[in-house]
Write a structure and sequence with these properties.
This protein is an all-alpha fold. The chain has eight helices and no strands. The protein has one domain.
């Protein structure tokens, strides 16, 4: 029963989406100011809450992974994301997302990039990381745009209704 409900929820979310949205990115980040009615205090609270949530979620993921495999956790969560204060991250993300080419980069990736700038990592390394992130997101979106959803739903349905 739970699988059927999950499948129904999946289908509804899939069919109601106007475009493939995987990540919260610069487009949403830039909309916060408008949604906060251009109130600096409200805008800061929303953005700092989001940043704190990302950082807490990352720490939780690290600790869960570390309890199973410390080496893997250190490899996956190796980038430093706590070099800057939340206020500095917000300011850096505001600046970073002014560039339309960066608007599709997910916010967690932009946080890493902001910290790389804060740590004064050589600019060529940061630019390569940024370009690799753009390429990765573009490839992922293209793959999702060409995905045959009806085939995906059918495979999921058949998998969940096997009677062996």
């Amino acid at each position: 029963m739970c699988r059927k409900i999950s499948l129904i929820v999946f289908c509804v979310l899939l069919l109601n989406g106007q475009e493939n949205r995987i990540f919260w990115d610069g487009r949403e980040w830039n909309k916060i100011r408008k949604n906060a009615n251009y109130d600096n205090s409200i805008e800061h609270k929303i953005k700092s809450t989001y940043i704190n949530g990302v950082l807490d979620g990352r720490l939780y993921g690290y600790l869960r992974t570390w309890s199973k495999n410390a080496t893997l956790a250190n490899e996956v969560f190796g980038e430093s994301v706590d070099y800057l204060s939340v206020r500095e991250i917000i300011n850096n993300l505001n600046y970073f997302y002014e560039d339309p080419l960066n608007s599709y980069i997910p916010i967690p990736t932009a946080i890493i990039i902001a910290n790389l700038y804060g740590q004064r990592v050589p600019i060529d390394i940061i630019e390569k990381y940024t370009q690799d992130s753009r390429d990765w997101v573009n490839t992922l979106v293209l793959e999702l745009d060409t995905l045959d959803y009806s085939r995906l739903i059918e495979e999921k349905y058949l998998k969940n209704n096997k009677t062996d």
